[in-house]
Specification:
Elements: H1 2-19, E1 27-37, E2 40-54, E3 60-71, E4 82-86, E5 105-107, E6 121-123, E7 133-137, E8 146-147, H2 163-180, E9 188-193, H3 195-210, E10 217-221, H4 226-229, H5 234-238, H6 241-250, H7 256-259, H8 263-283, H9 290-304, H10 308-313, H11 320-326, E11 335-336, E12 344-345, H12 359-379, H13 404-414, E13 419-425, H14 433-443, E14 453-458, H15 468-485
Parallel strand pairs: 4-7, 4-9, 9-10, 10-13, 13-14
Antiparallel strand pairs: 1-2, 2-3, 3-7, 3-8, 5-6, 11-12
Helix pairs in contact: 2-3, 3-13, 6-8, 8-9
Length: 494
């Protein structure tokens, strides 16, 4: 009887514990490590923990999980840059760039970015930790970050899950982080991937005008600019063609005249045709003449690897999903990836308008999910039963009043120190490299700040850093960007 009572008591305790599983609102775990970068050993401190988001009453309404890396034995911390890193989604954890790009540890994958077992991490010999400290921030409901219901109320989703709400609370959170870690004097850079590009464009002005925190640089990795992507129309539709050219070249389905050339020799041709001919043609819609329509279809086929017939059947407007499904239909029957069109997938049937699944994303989740859970809990010693949300519940997301592109322009105009670099993979079919170039061209209509923008392209996809050669090159580009945009005693004036 006593044994039965003890078991009942134990089960009761365990049930209570399970019902109250939650993350500490404000905590940190500190560990020491080293990594060899470009042949030099870097000793560094890793701090991973949670920091609150407060409401107007000073009550915690969310707790954001972060990981913060600082190089040890730095004599002048004020002169050392701080890189603030976000991924996108919206709803994505800050895991991708953390564990595969700029951080001191990266995935165990092959040189082209494909998963290998056993899953895990290894040292990153190209990390930018040698030139900057780095903090990776997980927005609300991503990674280990969670919203917190106010007393007697439901979570006010409007405070977190929308373009402007996201920017507002993250700017306030960063103010606290910078204050707690004594980084106000440091040169600051923010980097965002995919939707993170929208996020950091907006944060550039919010940090400056709401928190009085001025930046030296904004880095956009495969940025999603919804002023183009969601608007549709002739410009948005035409801008896909150079990406089609790149993907078709990779899979060797272009005409021999193009296929025999290097990728970087043919992309300018496709870009020029897109700007000078395709956009005006699509702008005519159903009133384009038959002969012109046929000429355009023939040239689009030349630059895309699709047939003239397919392009005419789509009235010159070829959806990206159709391209992923049909590019290799008559060659191998594989589909190609959305975020990285080097990846191949197998559909149930050849016919259809879009692939059954995203071949590249399933491949990435193979390696990232076990690695981030292992790394945070076993190497960085952050122990929790909370689930790590690779993608968190943040929808419905409020996309109204997206002024982020102009926010970046205004931030740059007000701050002569502020420079922008865009990094894109040529085989990214979701946020294409040519869309990224177009965004760069459109930020400042005056053209007076064009010398403060730079674009870097890579022979891979959305997460171009998964390919080892691009991991090296892209980190070096960030390293050079930071070094180039340090003020070095120069006054902030025009």
């Amino acid at each position: 009887m006593k044994k039965l009572l003890f078991i009942s008591f134990l089960l009761g305790v365990l049930c209570c514990y399970a019902q109250n599983r939650k993350l500490p609102i404000d905590t940190v775990v500190t560990t020491q490590h080293n990594v060899t970068i470009n042949g030099a050993t870097i000793n560094y401190t890793a701090k991973t923990g949670t920091q609150p988001v407060w409401n107007e009453k000073g009550e915690p309404v969310a707790s954001l999980h972060y990981t913060y890396y600082t190089q040890n034995n730095v004599k002048n911390r004020a002169a050392r840059p701080l890189l603030i890193s976000f991924n996108g989604g919206p709803g994505s954890a800050s895991v991708w760039m953390h564990l595969a790009y700029t951080g001191p540890r990266v995935l165990k994958i092959d040189d082209e970015g494909y998963p290998v077992q056993p899953y895990g991490v290894k040292s990153n010999p190209f990390s930018v930790l040698d030139v900057t400290d780095i903090v990776y921030v997980n927005p609300a409901n991503t990674g280990y970050s969670r919203t917190i219901p106010e007393t007697g109320k439901e979570v006010d989703r409007e405070k977190f899950f929308g373009i402007n709400a996201d920017i507002k609370y993250l700017a306030e959170w960063l103010n606290t982080f910078v204050t707690r870690n004594n980084r106000w004097r440091s040169p600051k850079y923010i980097i965002g991937e995919s939707y993170g590009g929208t996020r950091v464009m907006g944060l550039s002005l919010a940090l400056q005008n709401q928190q009085w925190m001025y930046l030296n640089g904004v880095i956009m990795v495969s940025p999603a600019d919804y002023k183009v992507i969601r608007r549709g129309g002739p410009v948005s539709d035409a801008m896909n063609l150079p990406y089609y050219t790149a993907a078709a070249w990779h899979h060797k389905v272009l005409p021999k005249e193009l296929q025999d050339k290097d990728l970087l020799d043919i992309l300018p041709e496709s870009e020029k045709y897109t700007i000078n001919t395709l956009i005006p043609a699509l702008a005519k819609g159903g009133f384009i003449g038959e002969s012109e329509k046929n000429r355009v279809a023939k040239k689009m086929a030349y630059y895309s690897g699709l047939s003239e017939k397919e392009i005419l059947e789509q009235n010159l407007t070829v959806p990206t999903a159709y391209f992923w499904k049909h590019l290799l239909k008559g060659k191998s029957g594989y589909t190609i990836g959305r975020l990285d069109s080097r990846y191949l997938g197998i559909d149930r049937q050849l016919s259809g308008t879009k692939p059954d699944y995203s071949a590249e994303l399933t491949s990435w989740l193979h390696s990232f999910t076990p690695a981030i859970n292992y790394y945070l809990q076993e190497e960085l010693k952050f122990k929790t039963d909370i689930k790590y949300n690779m993608f968190g519940p943040v929808h419905l997301w409020n996309n109204e009043n997206d002024n982020t592109r102009d926010n970046l322009r205004q931030a740059m105009a007000q701050n002569p120190y502020l420079n922008v670099m865009i990094q894109s993979g040529y085989y990214d079919g979701a946020t294409t490299y040519f869309n990224a170039k177009y965004t760069m061209w459109q930020v400042d209509p005056s053209g007076k700040m064009s010398d403060r923008f730079s674009f870097k392209g890579y022979r891979s996809g959305h997460m171009m850093y998964l390919r080892r050669e691009d991991l090296k090159n892209a980190n070096n580009d960030i390293r050079d960007f930071i070094k180039r945009t340090m003020s070095n005693g120069k006054s902030a004036k025009y």
